[in-house]
Amino acid sequence: GDVYKRQSKVRPLAEKAGLTIPENVTDFPKYMQQMVADGKAKLKEYEDGLAELEAGKKQVAEGQKLIDANTKAYNEGKAMLSKIEPLMPLLNTYVQFRDGTIAKLPGFDSAQAWFVKTVRPIAANLGITIPDDVTDFPAFMNKMVADGKAQLKEYEDGVAKLAEAEKTIAAGEKKLAAAEKEIAAGEKKLA
Description:
rod-shaped; mainly alpha
């Protein structure tokens, strides 16, 4: 009887305050404690979503910065690789001459002499400076190709990082919107 009396007084006051208490609630203090706990959980979800969103925005900024920095490297890498392409047949000739798989080229007694007199000027015309101390043309070419590919990879990594950050932001915004909706619904109940 005593619990019923208290609830019969509390229910009209709660309803006057705009809070609807379901008919099956018999323990009002426990019901209110659960509502507060639920509200705190929703608030925590909201804060987590907000933190995730901020982390995503930071990732996007870092990714964009990386892409901006690497766009130049990417373009240089592409340009370098396209400049190297016409030299590849000459590289094969150099290796065959050096290894003795082709007869000596007229006017040259070594692959290195042929390289200095023939390949270096062609490379210079393509915009590639081969230092005078290069004595291993294949190693030089392999390093140039590796450098060019590394520059392309840096750019591609930046693009991938940016895409991942954009996914993180989208997920954070989705969680944030859901949490805001639930908080608004909770505020409506308490208003």
